[in-house]
Amino acid sequence: MATDLARLHDVFDLAMRIGEGLLSNGAPASEVTATILRVISASGIRNVSVTVTFDEVSISYLPGREAAPFTRIRAAGARIQDFTRLEAYEQVTEDYISGAIDLETAAAEVAAVPARERVYPAWLVTAGLAVMGGAAAFGLGAGVLTTVAATVTAAVLAVLTETLTARRIPLFYIQVAGGFVAAIAAVLVHLIDPDENSSVVVVACLIILLAGLTSLGAMQDAITGWYVTASGRILETFMLTIGLVIGVRAGILVAEMFRADISVSASMPVSLAGLLALVVSGLFLGLGYAISVQTPPRSLVWCALIAALASVTASLVTSIGLDRVWAVGLTAAGVGALAAVLAEKVKAPTLTFVMAGVIPMVPGSRIYRGLLAIGTDLAEGAGWLFEAVEIAVALAAGAVLGQLVAARILRMTGRAVSSFTPVIAAPFTTLRRRRQVAAGRPRAGRRGGATMTGERTVLSPSSPAGPPSQRSVEREETP
Fold first, then answer.
1. Among 87-91, 113-117, 121-125, 337-341, whose mean pLDDT is lowest?
2. Which residues form the Threonine/Serine exporter ThrE domain (predicted)?
């Protein structure tokens, strides 16, 4: 009995550590829940309920009517973006449910993930963010001075964010400081050369500062019905965006004191040269972002290519007369589908490629136009900001739809779907999924991995284990 209980604790500890790691790195609630259930199901445990909230993962297990319920709760740590660790958690999950490693090995590997050294040192991450700033400015048609200024400012923001974070300053104030620094940099560019389009510095920095938010995961949770987790993530994104707005508005007030014109000029027209600029901009945006979030080296090229493709596609679709919101939504859907297929091929998290692909379409210029207009025309400013919100929603909705369609097609092909395939689903429970599987045609084959037959037999004296065929179907109930 004691041995069985100890092993039961080990299984739940493994599942919760993996779930916490996924949640902390921005994975949506459906993905976290499904992964936890996959691990538990591969261990042969039934009657499990998993609950995922904004910063907490809980597992409840009822062995039988005469047994006491068993509950574990684990709080998620601070949200970070480290896609190397995210990939490590998903790889351990894949190896465990396929039977490649046993429970003890899986537990040891998961425990070692947080202690791993970062793939890229701090100076290279700073360089990646600096490249992002320069690439965003270049794609917006900036001149040499403005592009250099955006590059330097992005590097300053990276160092500032790292320094303030190390001192445990709340992220809200870090966003305020970032927005203010970006606006002041634009003022300096204007004072050096009034003919330069200095506003591009702010827009480029806005893209970088907004790229680190969890808006995509928040919208996916809201769209798929995981409202508790979505509400927390949306509120976090809203507050951090408000902090950014406050910082930029403070910088605009300083610009007005110096009578510096940092208004947004007309966008760059679509031409062959403009498309080439978008390709180069997208490549370096994707590459810089991938480095900044610790993407494994083998995925860097794919992130750069997806970002370049998304940047050009969104621009071309907009140029043919389609509304920007629809153009962005359709492009994001293509990015989501491509990311799901690529994740299966490369064996990397889908989120890695989705985030890289949507970065070039972040509505930084519309947010800045809205902030500029609010001081003189509240209705116009609110209109620009509302359009930015529409684009943000279209980005998330399109990316989620693309992943949903691609994941369903991958499952329809009959191939074995790995843990890297995205799970886009409404809230589900173990019992409901088991009824759905039992009602349909039984699937052939069994998942590998460690089993919990002994623990289930001891802890559930009143619940028969059922025939082998029944146990096989129940182990495959989770997505």
1. 113-117
2. 285-404
% of the chain beyond a pLDDT of 70: 85
Span of 22-31, 139-148, 230-239, 262-271 with lowest mean pLDDT: 262-271
Global pTM reads 0.83
Single-letter amino acid, residue 370: G
pLDDT at 355: 92
For residues 100 and 205, membership in a common domain is answered with no
Highest mean pLDDT among 63-67, 236-240, 439-443, 455-459: 236-240
pLDDT 10s digits, 368-401: 888 878 777 888 888 988 998 899 889 989 999 9
Same domain? 239 vs 380? yes
Whether residues 271 and 306 fall in one domain: yes
> Is 62:456 a contact under the CB 8 Å cutoff?
no
Q: Compute the distance between CA of residue 207 and CA of residue 153 in angstroms, rounded to an integer.
A: 13
Question: What's the chain's length in residues?
Answer: 479
On whether both 399 and 450 belong to a single domain, the answer is: no
How high is the pLDDT of residue 84?
93
Residues 306 and 443 in one domain: no
Q: Which domain holds residue 72?
A: 2-117+429-475
| Average pLDDT rounded to a whole number, residues 103-127 | 92
Two tokens, residue 300: 């860097």
The answer to whether position 373 is within a domain reads yes
Domain contains 356: yes
Number of structural domains the chain divides into: 2
Residue 285 in any domain: the answer is yes
